[in-house]
Design a protein that fits this description.
By secondary structure, this protein is an alpha/beta fold. The chain has 14 helices and twelve strands.
Length: 331
């Protein structure tokens, strides 16, 4: 197995670190708000197709799997031109641009969520794959790591890989700079705000039992150690569901096609989450929402059970089965 990635993106570092080979294409995202940049990105994608085709052939690929990102378009077109099976994976409640363009030409489309109107013979609802580090996380070991007692409630605060400024600063103000907190906190801030948050936390008078992390490569420990999450609603909703965690979700308001709101509503409709608009988040609202849940054990238990009911821990193996079936057909 090998990967195609975009130069200058996270995969350039993370894929080799995981022990796999990655070939890089010169690509950028399509900025719909800037026509000049959008045209340039489309031209880059078109120019990348011959190189993608060459790399796929050189790697001896039997199946091409598209993840819906920058690379999926050129790689998918190249796969079809090489007459290779094409599997698309979609993480959100709508098809992204690359997947919309390739859907009619794909042998399989593996969806994280059911998507209205997309129910052909080639469609499978597998859920979104979650890493083994999350699925195998151990609560007792994680709590030992963070120094959390077995009988103490814990809140996890996180805002995605880049962090979320509204969540970050509201959390420190509400949970470290005010008295009266009755639970421990694990806060994964992202790199952008970390230095400022660290300074405020070091000067705060109620910062005990408050763990601030700049980055956590595997969120399994943070999720399993906690009882409730206060978070964005990107890919993490599937990690929260995998471990049966209740959540207060604050969708990123500028996400493509507002997909984070759709993700949050998926959990809320099941009774697993409360959804709060980003514009309404401040220290008072954060503290009120968290206390309403943690102070009501029956509600927390019901939300956690609802979250667990959404879990699809077998998603990765289900997608792999589809890929291997197509590889077998080709062989």
């Amino acid at each position: 197995m090998s990967f195609l990635g975009a130069r200058g993106r996270l995969e350039e570092e993370l894929v080799p670190k995981a022990g796999y080979e990655v070939d890089l294409l010169d690509l950028s995202g399509i900025d719909r708000r800037n026509p000049v940049k959008a045209i340039r990105a489309a031209a880059q994608a078109a120019a990348a197709i011959p190189r993608a085709r060459k790399l796929i052939r050189e790697r001896g690929a039997e199946v091409v799997v598209g993840g819906g990102g920058f690379v999926a378009g050129p790689a998918g077109v190249a796969a079809r031109r090489l007459k290779l099976p094409l599997v698309l994976t979609e993480a959100d409640r709508h098809l992204g641009l690359a997947n919309r363009l390739l859907a009619r030409r794909a042998d399989r489309i593996c969806l994280a969520f059911e998507i209205e109107g997309l129910d052909g013979a080639n469609v499978r609802v597998t859920g979104r794959p979650v890493g083994k580090g999350v699925l195998n996380a151990d609560r007792e070991k994680a709590r030992d790591r963070f120094g959390i007692a077995a009988d103490t409630s814990c809140l996890l605060v996180m805002g995605g890989s880049q962090g979320a400024r509204s969540i970050n600063f509201a959390a420190v103000e509400a949970l470290a700079e005010r008295p009266g907190r009755k639970f421990d906190v694990i806060h994964v801030s992202g790199s952008r705000d970390y230095s400022q948050l660290r300074e405020r936390l070091d000067a705060a008078s109620h910062a005990s039992a408050y763990t601030l992390l700049e980055y956590e490569p595997d969120m399994g420990d943070g999720i399993v150690a906690s009882d409730l999450a206060f978070a964005r609603s990107g890919a993490s909703v599937f990690e929260l569901a995998a471990l049966g965690r209740a959540a207060v979700l604050v969708p990123y308001p500028y996400a493509t096609a507002d997909h984070q709101t759709a993700n949050a509503e998926w959990m809320a409709e099941a009774g697993a989450a409360v959804v709060v608009p980003d514009a309404e988040i401040d220290a008072d609202r954060l503290l009120a929402e968290v206390n309403r849940i943690l102070d009501n054990p029956a509600r927390l238990e019901a939300m956690s059970a609802a979250s667990k009911s959404l879990a699809r821990p077998q998603a990765a193996s289900d997608v792999a089965d589809e890929v291997l079936e197509l590889a077998g057909d080709r062989s």
